[in-house]
Fold each of these.
Amino acid sequence: MTWCCPCSSSRRDGTRGPGETLPRSGRKQRRSLRVCELLLAIFLLRIRRLWIYLSSASGKGCQESRSLERCLPLRPGEKDMLELENLELWCDPVARNGPENMAVDSWLLGREVPVLRTYHWKGNWGSVGYFGEVEKARQVLPDVSLVRRATGGGLVDHQNDITYTLVVPRSYDLAKAKGAESYRVIHSALAIALKKNGHEVELVGQDSEVDSSSCFEKPVEWDLIDKFGQKVAGAGQRRTRKGLLHQGSILLGDSADGAGILSRLAGELARSVRSLEVKPSGEGFPALVRQFSAASWLERR
């Protein structure tokens, strides 16, 4: 940095006698000095801000770089909120179409039992969020069948993803938490599970400025990205009188061990995990399938 020093005026000590005025060149030098002082103040302020950021890298300073080592374990008190006492893990063996998969998730929410479900799709399917625009989705995925989710979020192509659903009854703290908080807690657990499975990921500290309706082209706060900045996990949520419905998608390629990842996620979410084998039934289930199959539901936005 260049430091500015004013030259001496008519007197060697820079003072003026009575009635003397500062020459025009002296006034310019004084203005130059003030500009230099202002630049120095700005420089020192930036240095101070940088020091504060670096000194708090393990806390708020990791907003811009959410590495696991910096930002995990969870914040004080969140471990208890994260850990469910019991969790049912259902590796649904039946490949279903879009409306059926959405109906199963809503049916599980009605059971009011904590459950983590991983499932498959029958045919080529994509899903749009509750507030998504179907016409835009058709332009992005013209050769894929579409279904509207009950949860929020963007357009998701399910042809190559690992799809899962977490249901948490209303009585649990995780279901009572605010949307951003429960999203962060669940994705923190997923980040740990992915790391244990050999995938290096980071939590996103803020929404991306990318303008896209596609979920995996627009990372938002608390999504997961890989070391190249590519989004690898996102989700949508919905809260009802029954509890929290969290529908998630993980995109890691064909070689990813989906069952292993979800099994580890279950272990991070609960103290006790047991396998579940269930067949959706009851009078309400066919009605749910009809609801998600209806054109009026798909075209509602």
Note: Residues 176 and 206 are 23 Å apart (CA to CA).
Amino acid sequence: MIIRDFTDNDLYKFSIMNAIQKKFPDAEVVYRFVNRGETPFPEGFGEALRREVDAMRTLFLTDTAEAFMRRRCYYFDNVFFDLLKGFRFNPAEVTVVQEGGRLEVEVRGLWYRTVLWEVPLMAMISELYYRMTGATPAADADDRARAKARRFEELGAELSEFGTRRRFSFEVQDRVIGILKECMPRVLNGTSNVYLAMLHDLIPMGTHPHEWFMYHGAHYGYRVANEMAMENWVDVYDGYLGIALPDTFTSTDFFKSFSTKYAKLFDGLRCDSGDPFEFTERALSYYERHRIDPKKKTVVYSDGLDLEAIARIKGHVAGRLHDVYGVGTFLTNDVGVQPLNIVIKLFEVKPKGETDFLPVVKLSDSPGKHTGDPDEIDLCKRMLKL
């Protein structure tokens, strides 16, 4: 069994689950697997994945994990912990089909329930692929991780480990986090993985994903999506978990909605696509224009970063704001194999009262990374005058 603990998942899935059950408990959704790299999967992969999915029904929140989350995730209320204690994964929500080397995975059901599937499914697909193709970590994998950790420490680059979804294996991620904690304690902020945060006594890191904004676009309309998503988030968390994600409908559109109110309420922003240098200057200019000291705000850079990119960004920022780095695959799948280029994305939603499912889209700041129906993407662009 690949996923062996209920909390072997990223914090942002729990944080959005809490917000969903408070704001949109009756919303239904559809997620789909996207094989961006067009990797062919070996014979029998679909059946093996199905067995892993079915095994998820045995997982539950343990008393130990609950105690850890109550201590570290103080922004969750008692009602949410009651929900988590009674929650069980329903494998019937997941459809797995394999035709030759082509893999199709779909998740369908109530949003507050199905939201927890994405990260473990991706981790399962990644680890299972390497098992079934006979891949093994390079002998120097741990040495690579130590060298990176020492360089992060030298750079003074504050780091959060974000590598659950495309990790080589749980064991590799566990080992890497141990190395990071040993070699760069001064600049390691935490990990997105709640279970590994508990094992290594770190802070679980994360706020919200793109799907929060994508849903609001379908529910309320693209012109007000960013503002409504921020307002609902603040209503649930009252200022906690305050790093806003600006690139669901491009950061150009986001900054039109990021009023002084939200700029003061949110602790900062996450740069997850596009040119990080342009984004830095835009954020600095925005905060200064609204008479906010940028040095008191945080930007989390998280778009496929390696050491060279982090060094360049840190040099460009030059202390003008608080820069933090979210690093994933570069740490948890740099073991001598090619990481899978895969995602699981929200594709359709059905808000309460709707009779039909509505398409959702994401307009990245990076060309070629838009997701969703092409006609709906075109409609969204025209509505937002992009």
Note: The chain has two domains: 11-135+339-384, 141-209+216-332.
Amino acid sequence: PPEKSNCPRSQKQADIWYFGEHAGIDFTSGSATILTNQDVMTAYKASSVMCDSVGNLLFFTNGRKVWDRSFNLMPGATELAGNVGVTQPCIIVPRPGEDSIYYLFTVDVLAFMPDDSYTTRGINFTMIDMKKSGGMGEAVTYINSPLLSPACQKITAVRHANEKDIWVIAHKWDSDEFYVWLVHQGGMSDPVISSTGSVQGGGYADQVNAIGYMKAAPNGNQLALAVTGSDNIELFNFDKTTGEITFTESYTTQISGISPYGIAFSPDSRKLYASLLQIVGNGPPSTPSYILQFDLDVGLANPVVIDSAVGIRLGALQLATDGRIYISRTVNLLIKRDSLDVIYNPTRPGSECNYNRLENIPGSRFPLGSRAAIYSLPNVIQSYVDIPVFTYDSCCYLDATQFHITNHANIDEVSWDFGDGGSSSDMDPVHGYAQPGSYTVTLTETFNGQTFIDTGTIVIHDLPQIELGDTIMLYSGATVNIYATPDMQSYWWSTRYTGPVLQVETQGDYWVEVKDWNCCTNTDSVYVKVFEYFIPNAFTPNGDGLNDQFRVVGLYRNITFEMYIYSRWGQLVFQSDDIDHGWDGSYKNKIAEADTYVWVVYVDFLGEDIRTNGDVILKGTVTLIR
């Protein structure tokens, strides 16, 4: 589905790449920009880079050493068990629910002897805490802790079905077994082991069977790998809930002298790409390299040859967050090239995927600024590149919804159908929906007379409901709780309070803005009026019509009322249960003496429209003046 961003997008962990011989790319702006600021790492085959959720670089590795964001070696991570000569020597996985904890998985080489014996450390992991070393990170525990040995040169990762935890997938050597570990908030689970597909193994002569990439599909439902020594590409179903893997089919390359190596899925997970290259020999290749495209709607049969390259080895393939697949290219380890090949439209079929072709200009490679990829590209968690064709900002009712095409490459014109009768021909249009609800949006791209259609369901959310009322009557000295809608993501009151219940004791206007879990906001306000009775401190019962009675003055009448007046000697001289019936200064039908008297008033409010802290008891003195 399209990605909504009313809640800010928080999946930019794969937006910075460092790889090869000091090469780098920055995707944080939405398009690829060359980075030439890194001169410390060489990664011949693959690397791994981790950013935070907004794209700030944290650290990177070639499997042997780790560098922090300032390009300094990370303490405790300078002699790790990865080997820079293996296909996928490393991958970095965050521990869910822990912003600072990361697991770095490393893969060692199988070092064979002619007698078929070998040495290897297999797959290990190291825990990195980014709170250490002043926030620059440090390998703190489980340094080079063993997980699996012997192992193939393959490791990939993808999210669990719960969208929080992460599966890490590897393949055992001399076996058909996949080992799948779940990284979760509590740590790491015991492996799920699936025996399926071919046996990847052999002796000294067959060690190239360990070589070749393995990738999970961005949507996590499939897994593909290259068994380089056997010239096979294998496809599997992956259960994101259980971690179980099931073989579906394989493809054996039909071109003599070259073997499958790099693997990448398209952003919609419906197409698979593989590189074929000459493995044997250290000099310039005598056989061209190829890029194959498989339509996974029909399977691995009858792939399309997208391109071939003479005198070049096409190595790693990796989908980026700009929706394009990048491909490393080199002659060998010594004779290198300072650019990447690019599949600009990997969701399109056949030659329409535009291999090295941008706006009808052939040879449109991505330059690396005198740096080289060699065989290398970063090994990323594939869920980080689960890229929709379009995204939309502002998914709340009454907002203007902004649509964005993720990959603008090779588009002559577009047509949008917003699913409510509205349409647009703008590249990144703005549309207002009259009602909340679900809408099927259709995007039609046209290039060179060919049309490419993609649909997605978007949800325009209603605003959170909130009702504070109109006016709250509050008796003086009391407090009242004003309740906003519970279980919201955030609250912001006019008093700068940030909780769901505001306690108030003073008169005034109060408002709150609430944000729900769809990041939609709504506001409401209420007026709090502080109410009190006026009770004079003197009266003059002389018959002039002014202040002739001592009584409680106030408009609110829905009460039970009692008033008692006492002389200075404690003698009850007057009582009333009617707020409108005051004391006229007499006692037993005689004029009371001019003096100071003590009064007590009890008020019980009968309705719920006056907020108090309980029954009101008022006390004071009044002077009778003659």
Note: The mean pLDDT is 94.
